[in-house]
Design brief:
Shape: globular
Number of strands: 15
Distance between the termini: 29 Å
Radius of gyration: 20 Å
Structural class: alpha/beta
Order of helices and strands: EEEHEEEEHHEHEHEHEHEHEHHEHE
Number of helices: 11
Amino acid sequence: MEALVCRKLGDPTVSIHDEKSPIVLSKTEPIPQLNSSTAVRVRVKATSLNYANYLQILGKYQEKPPLPFVPGSDYSGTVDAVGPNVSNFKVGDTVCGVAALGSFAQFIVADQSELIPVPKGCDLLAAAALPVAFGTSHVALVHRAQLSSGQVLLVLGAAGGVGVAAVQIGKVCGATIIAVARGAEKIKFLKSLGVDHVVDLSNESVIPSVKEFLKARKLKGVDVLYDPVGGKLTKESLKLLKWGAQILVIGFASGEIPVIPANIALVKNWTVHGLYWGSYKIHRPHVLEDSLKELLLWAAKGLITIHISHTYSPSEANLAFSAIEDRKVIGKVMIAFDDMKSIRPRL
């Protein structure tokens, strides 16, 4: 089968045809066999490229699998084979799922408990984009912060994969949404989602812009900070939080891990939530299952929309990683198998 294999750590934006590339496109990988009576083999149609995949190939992610490995986490596809005790799926069913590794390949094997059926009418490209980005934001905002109607949500990196998801989930929850991004194209897109206020970092600072908005709305401050960025932007955003606010630490796209002063958190009664979505699969798998089911239901009802920014073939993987590194992405970056680049999301 065809698979993207990481053989050494390094920069994944280097062309896969260059000997310096850490990843190669192998066309002779063995097709994985069913490994239990409840195993399901899925022919992958599309897989999502996340910032974590980029960091993992660089060797900068918290989980460092032994080399060589096939990267990739969330995916969608069609059931190709089932074990004798599989009761939830049959060959031909469309499914989506999340793996620790291995979705950058034409086939992947998972236990039936790890797969979610894709409702009829849902596009497989969009279904593959949903689990990690929307799952992260849903668990963070709904399960951890318990965001409620009328609260103020400040989303940093709002035009990225998890940011776009957080904005939309915040709207479903009835929150007032403040979105922070950089560049006219991203700002225009966020406005199209109906956010209440947008901060364009290319020509304004977050503190005065948000304070002016809060004053105009007669709001006391930000209730929930959603932060996949870190660095200086986090430090500035802390000055906008009200007493009793919640901070969701999602990631550090800026490359700088921020310091949240414990003394200020004490005085202002802040709650800091660290959110590593992948670990829920080990410690609270039912939370992920319930989350993904609710997200697919929201998608079917049109409450959320999966925005695909770029779609590439496996041979163009370096271009996919470059889009993330260069911050050209609005929404999600996908790798599609079986000539799915012509498919457009309908979710």
